[in-house]
Protein: DUF4157 domain-containing protein
Amino acid sequence: MERRHRLREVGNWLNLSTPLGLAVARVGGARVGRGPRGLWLAGGYRPRFPFAAAFTVGNVIISRGRPEQLRGGLLDHEERHSWQWFALLGVFFLPAYLLATAWSWLRTGDRASANVFEVDAGLERGGYRRAPVRPLPDALSGGRRGRGAGRPRPGGGSPRG
Structure:
């Protein structure tokens, strides 16, 4: 394993986000196994929240489907979120992500298009479509939501990522 992946792996254990991710996966009924680059892949997650086909907590990528379905762009997208957990020392990631989601909802009408974490992870790789940014006065007055933007494409991606 590359040195940088090992750094992220150890860091996310120390900031307790990976243990939290393993606990979330187990409570959600997912089967957990080792993945590439220091990641854990958990498949078969059953609870309806969060509203996502896949999401990441620490170095644990949790999905509703089979873990082997996590590959290519989606795996890269979710791995990027594991780096975000590392960079924000675990505990700071969730409130920052929630604020970024609220900002995105205000500016675009969906939770991903202007969410700095989703943009950084690659919207398209996560299965999102980019929604146009609304002028702030329109957003504050309840302007129209973009049609279908920000929703994951059928069969691919994660509404949360």
Summary: Residues 72-87 form the longest helix (16 residues).
